[in-house]
Amino acid sequence: MARILAITNQKGGVGKTTTTVNLAACLAERGQRVLLVDLDPQGNATMGCGIDKSKLERTVYHLLLGAASLAQVRIDAPSCHCHILPANRELAGAEIELVSLEQREHRLGQALSEVAGDYDFILIDCPPALNLLTVNALAAAQAVMIPMQCEYYALEGLSDLVATIKKIRANLNRKLEIEGLLRTMFDPRNTLAQQVSAQLEQHFGPKVYATVIPRNVRLAEAPSYGKPVIDYDRSSKGAVAYMALAEEVLARAGTPAKVLEEAVR
Predict the structure, then answer these.
(1) What is the pLDDT of residues 14-35, one digit of tens each?
(2) What Rg value do the Cα atoms of the chain yield, rounded?
(3) Domain that residue 155 falls in
(4) Cα separation of 111 and 103, whole Å?
(5) Reported confidence tier of residue 129, pLDDT bands at 50, 70, 90
(6) How do beta strands 82-85 and 75-77 pair?
(7) Other beta carbons within 10 Å of 179
(8) 73 vs 262, which has greater pLDDT?
(9) Do residues 177 and 149 touch, judged by C-beta distance below 8 A?
(10) Which of 3, 106, 161, 184 is positioned for an S-S bond with 15, CB 3.0–4.6 A?
């Protein structure tokens, strides 16, 4: 049965899509069967997997509205060695159209339940907002990965996100856990980043992934070539970091995560 991870943060520009694409590719390389779900209307994860979003006939938008089955939407992402439910700008209208539908918060979860046995991991790239698309992701997921930059505003945003996850768990998905916090775009030369990183480790302990994703030119360049960084430059620091993250995710997969809000309090 698949481990379903929602990769989310209400703050934009923290590396959610970069993490989803590269983690999917690294897990696939380790023999895992992976499905990537692009739930962001920008479709960046779709493009990062080398797929032209403008030429798609069916997307996750059609799946959520019941206009297509998962089998009709799912396509191969050869550069990431996984399957993907792609997205494009059509998805932006889904939130309005979902409002009038039954089980609107569970449309994604219902679709994924039909193929959960076909995969080891299902990774959901969430939009940088708390909307009905993100709610669908959190209602479908078993756990949440939170990418975040090491800056002082991050902790305040984290508290807000944890409050949201508590509400989702209370009302829609009692099994939802927070698997961990991932430090992204980290520059060890930045004293402020080092200080915030140390505070996160002190405050949240094992909830913080040991792996740190550095700022890396190759990591930033890879999406423009439609490739994960391990295919673009395997020896780069970004590639090495995401391969280490994949190992850490695999190690955690069988271990129930503790509740993060206890640490937040």
Answers:
(1) 899 999 999 999 999 999 999 9
(2) 17
(3) 3-264
(4) 12
(5) confident
(6) antiparallel
(7) 25
(8) 73
(9) no
(10) 184
Number of domains in the chain: 1
Q: For residue 107, give both structure tokens.
A: 């449309």
Residue 172's nearest CA partner among 146, 145, 143, 135 is 135
Please, what is the end-to-end C-alpha distance for the chain in angstroms?
33
Comparing 198 with 83, the larger pLDDT belongs to: 83
Cα separation of 213 and 137, whole Å? 24
Residue listed under structure tokens 């297509």: 68
Confidence of residue 162 (pLDDT cuts 50, 70, 90): confident
| Structure confidence at residue 150 as a pLDDT band (50, 70, 90) | confident
How far is Cα 163 from Cα 131, in angstroms, rounded to an integer?
15
pLDDT, the chain, mean: 90
- The larger pLDDT score, comparing residue 155 to residue 251, is at 251
Q: Locate 17 and state its tokens.
A: 């899509």
263 vs 152: CA distance, rounded Å:
17
What digits encode the pLDDT tens for the residues 103-112? 999 999 999 9
